[in-house]
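Bit of a strange request maybe. I'm writing a small parser for C-alpha cell strings and I need a real example to test against, not something I typed by hand. Could someone generate the C-alpha cells for this chain?
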Amino acid sequence: MNQLKVIEQKGIRVLTSAQLAEVFGTDFKRINYNFNYNKERYEEGKHFFVLTGDQRREFINEHEIHASLKTAHTIYLWTEKGAFLHAKSLNTDQAWDAYSKLVDDYYKKVEESKQSQPDLSALSPQLQFMIMMEQKQKALETKQAQLEERINDVEEVKTTVNNIAEYITAVPDHAKVVSTVNEFARWTRLGHNEVYNKVYEILKRIHGIDVRQRVENERERIQKEYNRKSGKWYSESTLKSKVNGIDIMVRMGCLDKFNNILVGLLSQEKIKTTLRRVK
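Reply from user aminoacidic:
Good idea to test on real output. This should exercise your parser:
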C-alpha cells in the first residue's frame, strides 16, 4: 500500500478506478462494470466523487494517473466506503485482504495525520501561545466556511422547492418538457430513453396511460397506410421522426401529467443531493 500515490478530494483520501483495480487484482473495466451494475447502491459524496469538465482537466494536470483515465470523459474517485462496496461486488479473498490493508495503510492515515498535533513543549510560552491562537483562528475560519456552505445549501433547497411549484403550475409545452428531460438526464446520468421509460412506467401505473403502446400502435398504423399507398416501408428513423411520445401525449391531453411526474422525480434528486451536503 505504500506505493499508492496519495489523492485527496474535499479533505478525504480517495483512489482512482485504476488504482482500485490494481489493488484488488482486477481490471479497470471490471470496476466500471460493477459500479454501473449496482449504481443504485452508490451515493455520490459518500462512496465516490465524480470529476468532469474543468475539474477533470485540473485533476489530470495535477496528478500522475493511469493512461486509461486520461481519455475518459469522467473520472471517479472512490472513498473508503466506495472501496468496500467494490470489494463486496468482487467478493474474492484478494479483494477483501486488499480492502483491509487499504483501511489500515491508506484511508486511515489521513485521519491520524489530522489528529496528530506538533509538540510545542520546547518552545517559549509566548511562542506556544501565538501558535495556539493561530490554530484556533484557523479552526474558527474553517467552521465559519462550513457554516456558510450549510446556509447556501439550505437556500438551495428552498430554491428547489420553489422551482417545483413553478414547474408544476406552469402549462407544459413540447420544448419545456424536452428541456426538463435533458436536465433530468444530466442530473442522474441516465440516457434520454431511460428517462422517458421511467416516467412512462409511472404514468401507466398511476393514470393507466400506456404511452409506449400508443406510440407503437400509431407507428404501425401509418406504416401500413404508407405501404398500402406506395408499396414501400418507412425506415425506423423515419417512423420515430413522424410519431413520438410527446406528440401522442399532446393529442391525448396528458402531457401535463407526464410533466408533473418528471418534475417530481427531478426535484427529488435535487433535494436528496442538496440535503446530503447539508448533513
